[in-house]
Every structure is written in C-alpha cells, then in structure tokens.
C-alpha cells in the first residue's frame, strides 16, 4: 500500500532560520514525489516535484530512496512561507492519483 | 490561477439533502480527480476519471458518485448528506493521467452540512 508520512503537524521557526519539513513514503514501485503548498485553505499549489530537481521560492527537496524520504528544505525561512505543506506520492499503473500526507503547518515568526 | 474551475465556491445545506459539485478541468486535460479535505482526515482521494471513464477509486462513500461528461467537465454528487460530510472538496486535473503528469488543483468547494 502507498503511504506518506509527515511526522510534524506543526513546525514553527523564526524568520531567517533554516527549515526542514520531513516526508517519508512507503511504495513498492518507483515513486514520484511532490510537495504542494496551501495558503489559508486556498487551492493546493504545486511547489516542486522530484523529477524536475528544481528550486522554487528557495525550497529544494531531494529524493532519498534508501531512506524513502523526500524532505523539503529552505536555508532561510521567510514570513510569507507560512502555510500548510503537503507531501504527495504519485503512483504508477495507469493512474496519476496522488496520495497525500496529513500535512505540516509551517509558521515563520518575525 | 491553475485553470481548474469549481462551482459553487461555498454551499450550505441540511442533513439528508443532495448536492452536486461541478468542475471544469484545464484546457486539454483529460483526467479529473476529486479530493476531500476535512480537518480530521486530511486530504483524501475520492475518485479519478479519464476521458469519461472511471480510472481509479479511493475512499469514496457509496452515497457519493461522480461522472465525467463528453466535454470533460465533471460532477461530484453527494447524497443523504451527513454532518461529517462537511469539508472542502477539491477537483484537480492532469493531461493524461499517466505517471509523470502534474496534477493541478481548483480552488475547492466548501460544503457545510447543518
């Protein structure tokens, strides 16, 4: 079964501090991992996906298949980064449905 | 703007009633997904349609049903509503529904059952 675990429901950091949002997954196939961000219960916006290996808004994430992790990192957090962050696992086999973790609420304090 | 349009944005209805949520995917996207976001369950995948056909089913209750029409818009029908059905319902779409496609989400439909 596919599963995504985000161990931290809440994460609070100060502006300028590094931030890491943890994500672990369970999937027997070749995973596709995504991070989505949701501001104030608005629509989910794609932040980044592992296959593109890009950096968006200063965030990066590296897929570690050995540790089955896809942690999201940013070296210097900004107040506007405060939001809900969801890690998602894309599955293969004719369907691109996403399995989401329960999310981590990031608060960046001034 | 993701290009995925959902109506209505907000809906308040009574228990036992039936509602229909509507979704227009991004232009050119063939696959439509429905997700339910509630405070206690988080984001739950309900169902996926691809070019009019059901492709994948998740935690969708029997009281709920969906369809995708020839013009590719989709509707999610929720019947015999219960208080616990109050949630934010997201529609999303992607190009083909195969592995490797990015899924884009709409703004969601807030359903409150009173």
Question: What order do the helices and strands come in, and which of them pair?
Answer:
The complex is a heterodimer of chains A (110) and B (114).
Chain A: E1 3-5, E2 10-14, E3 19-21, E4 24-26, E5 32-38, E6 45-49, E7 60-61, E8 72-74, E9 83-90, E10 98-100, E11 104-109
Chain B: E1 5-7, E2 10-13, E3 19-24, E4 31-38, E5 42-50, E6 53-57, E7 64-68, E8 74-78, E9 87-94, E10 104-105, E11 109-113
Parallel strand pairs in B: 2-11
Antiparallel strand pairs in B: 1-3, 3-8, 4-5, 4-9, 5-6, 7-8, 9-10, 9-11
- DSSP summary: helix tally of chain B: 0
The global form of chain B is: globular
Distance between the termini of chain B: 31 Å
Strand content of chain A: 35-45%
Indicate the radius of gyration of chain A in whole angstroms: 13 Å
What is the structural class of chain A? mainly beta
The SS-based structural class of chain B is mainly beta
Note the quaternary state here. Answer: heterodimer
Largest sheet of chain A: 6 strands, mixed
Q: Could you spell the SSE succession of chain A in H and E letters?
A: EEEEEEEEEEE
In the predicted model, the low-confidence regions of chain B spanning at least 5 consecutive residues are none
Total strands of chain B? 11
Number of strands of chain A: 11
Could you list the spans of chain A in which at least 5 consecutive residues all have pLDDT below 50?
none
Helix fraction of chain B by DSSP (H/I, runs of at least 4):
under 10%
Mean pLDDT of chain A: 89
Shape of chain A: globular
Q: Gyration radius of chain B, to the nearest Å?
A: 13 Å
Chain pair sharing the greatest interface: A-B, 26 and 30 residues
């Amino acid at each position: 079964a596919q599963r995504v675990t985000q161990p931290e429901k809440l994460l609070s950091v100060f502006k300028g501090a590094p931030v890491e949002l943890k994500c672990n997954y369970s999937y027997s196939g070749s995973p596709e991992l995504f991070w989505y961000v949701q501001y104030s219960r608005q629509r989910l916006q794609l932040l980044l996906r592992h296959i593109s290996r890009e950096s968006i808004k200063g965030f990066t994430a590296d897929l570690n298949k050995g540790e089955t992790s896809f942690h999201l990192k940013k070296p210097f957090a900004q107040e506007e980064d405060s939001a809900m962050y969801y890690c998602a696992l894309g599955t293969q086999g004719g369907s691109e449905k996403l399995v989401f973790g329960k999310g981590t609420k990031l608060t960046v304090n001034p | 703007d993701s290009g995925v349009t959902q109506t209505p944005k907000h809906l308040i209805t009574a228990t036992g009633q039936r509602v229909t949520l509507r979704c227009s995917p991004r232009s050119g996207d063939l696959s439509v997904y429905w997700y339910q976001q509630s405070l206690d369950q988080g984001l739950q995948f309900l169902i996926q349609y691809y070019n009019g056909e059901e492709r994948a089913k998740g935690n969708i209750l029997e009281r709920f049903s969906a369809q995708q029409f020839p013009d590719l818009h989709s509707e999610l029908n929720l019947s015999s509503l219960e208080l616990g059905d109050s949630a934010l319902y997201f529609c999303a779409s992607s190009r083909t529904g195969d592995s490797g496609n990015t899924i884009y989400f709409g703004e969601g439909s807030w359903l409150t059952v009173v």
